[in-house]
Design a protein that fits this description.
141 residues; mainly alpha; 3-stranded parallel beta sheet; 5 helices
């Protein structure tokens, strides 16, 4: 990762999005090639594949889709070391505590009984697209 934090490296980012935040915080010495906010994230990968930038940061699901349509165009520099992990969220209004508790309890049940992982395996395009949720416990041997 230190190889990306060099003044000679250009990182493709979208203004104000996660790619920009990662680049600025984790690789402050690198140059940024900023694309407008309405740019499709696949264009970050296009920017790398055409040599206008050396690297970028996108979710695995976006990268996998791009590579399936453009084989051998880009590569994952750190396939087993995600730079960031973000959980998905569901927004509710501030006065919907009961609904929020219902969602949290229901999602917890889906995680604990294995349903969430089975759904991910069934619908994810690849094993890298979505990471299965970790269970909030482990059983000792």
């Amino acid at each position: 990762r230190a190889s990306l934090n060099q003044p000679s490296v250009t990182l493709a980012v979208v203004d104000g999005d996660t790619s920009s935040i990662i680049a600025k915080t984790a690789f402050p010495k690198a140059k940024l090639l900023s694309l407008p906010q309405d740019t499709p994230l696949s264009h970050l990968l296009l920017t790398v594949s055409t040599g206008k930038a050396d690297a970028t940061f996108v979710e695995n699901i976006i990268a996998d889709d791009y590579v399936s349509n453009n084989p051998n165009s880009v590569q994952d520099l750190f396939p087993n070391q995600p730079l960031r992990i973000f959980g998905n969220t569901i927004l509710v209004t501030k006065d919907e505590d009961g609904f929020l508790n219902f969602l949290n309890t229901s999602l917890g049940e889906l995680i604990n009984d294995g349903s969430a992982e089975r759904l991910i395996q069934k619908y994810a395009h690849s094993s890298r697209a979505l990471l299965p949720p970790s269970k909030p416990y482990f059983l000792p041997n």
